[in-house]
Hints:
Elements: H1 3-25, H2 45-51, E1 56-57, E2 66-72, H3 79-90, E3 95-98, H4 100-105, H5 107-115, E4 119-122, H6 135-153, E5 156-157, E6 159-160, H7 169-178, E7 182-184, E8 188-189, H8 198-208, E9 214-218, H9 229-243, E10 247-248, H10 251-255, E11 260-261
Parallel strand pairs: 1-7, 2-3, 2-9, 2-10, 3-4, 6-7, 8-9
Antiparallel strand pairs: 5-11
Helix pairs in contact: 3-9, 6-7, 8-9
Amino acid sequence: xxxxxxxxxxxxxxxxxxxxxxxxxxxxxxxxxxxxxxxxxxxxxxxxxxxxxxxxxxxxxxxxxxxxxxxxxxxxxxxxxxxxxxxxxxxxxxxxxxxxxxxxxxxxxxxxxxxxxxxxxxxxxxxxxxxxxxxxxxxxxxxxxxxxxxxxxxxxxxxxxxxxxxxxxxxxxxxxxxxxxxxxxxxxxxxxxxxxxxxxxxxxxxxxxxxxxxxxxxxxxxxxxxxxxxxxxxxxxxxxxxxxxxxxxxxxxxxxxxxxxx
Length: 262
Ligand SMILES: [Zn+2]
């Protein structure tokens, strides 16, 4: 590096340190500002939802004994129909956060979710981890799936859930302000994807549930429905929660949002 280039670089470093210092003493931005400029790079979902209560939701009203069951990562040809059968039998409506990729593979199953009265939200195109992607790419993940779902369902969905629940504040801002979504997390993680025993799913849910809870489960590809603990446990989960006085609603009903735009 030449002397001149070194000096130029030093000046750039000094300027960026100075600007960095300014940012550090800047007040935390308000959640209701018209054009917030997020600068919290690594917040947990609970912190993001606290900072942006109109953008991101982990649960509904704590004073109403309602819960929303959510099933992520479908549609698939075995789990999703098995889950739909149970929901129909139990007269429960749930919310499915689907990927664009799976929706293209199994359009009839996606359509069946809708026809049977359940709600459908955007869960990215191919389940990428947003924390590892630049904004330009996460925008593509959201928009591609948005187009697919709009085409297949006839409406633009308005509920988005990030894969793994991972997203930055900048991504949250992009998904809400640019793409027109509300971001939905959860406050009850059934950890069903790694459960071998259906009973452990029931226990995990009952230990965390509260009025207004959003319960995370999965519609993952399996060879046979009887091998899948989510499916095995679902009737027991529903009946146990009913025994405790809970009723089941979709995410948009729980949060009083519109699940689809025109
Ligand atoms: Zn997922």
